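hey can u run this one w/ 1,6-di-O-phosphono-beta-D-glucopyranose bound, need the structure tokens asap thx
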Amino acid sequence: MKQMEATGFIFDLDGVIVDTAKYHYLAWKKLADELGIDFTKEDNEQFKGVSRKRCLEILLEMGGLTVSQEQFDQWMVEKNEDYLEYINTMDEKEILPDVVKVLDHLKSKHIPMALGSASKNARPILEKVKLLSYFDTIVDGNAVTKAKPDPEVFLIAAKQLGVAAGDCVVFEDAVAGIQAANAADMVSVGIGEQKILFEADHNFTNFTEIDVKFLDALIN
Ligand code: B16
Ligand code: MG
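ok here u go:
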């Protein structure tokens, strides 16, 4: 296990702070139905933590479809418009259990906090669930050129927090996100099944399992 003097905390969004995967699924499913592609909740698992562009590429590969760039871009827009309709219905009730407890504790200790997400919709989602003010910086899909498992998103977040990469802790639910955190030499905390996120330095099923002692050990 890495020895740390962690002072910066970075949180993924979907699957860590809120479960937007269910809305992504509904929006992708609508497009898949229109295209005659069979798309199940199990298929949606491979879309977690993956950029919108890559998700559509995977969907079209599943359907054996090759399309023009113009058509591709149009479907990207269509999917996002449908997704945003769901996002507009979100409120604080959608924050995953005990996330606020953890954020409040870190805030009380004046710990710099960043969001590090693949989503281009991260900011409006945080606004809807009223968590935007907790974060000193938002690094989202608009800010990066390389997707997780590339460490770019977390390295930018560390830089913007003014904290050395090696002094950052990352909370992630996707395998690619854990790999990105490890590649950035950060402490990785997996949120989800240990057998899937086995590369993480620490693992919890969800935030209800995280206690103050664990957080304080990371800080000190
Ligand atoms: P958008 P995360 C990711 O969020 C989702 O897990 C993934 O399913 C989605 O395709 C990606 O954001 C892009 O989202 O279409 O809103 O730009 O887990 O990195 O917070
Ligand atoms: Mg995620």
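The longest helix spans residues 69-87. anyway lmk if its weird
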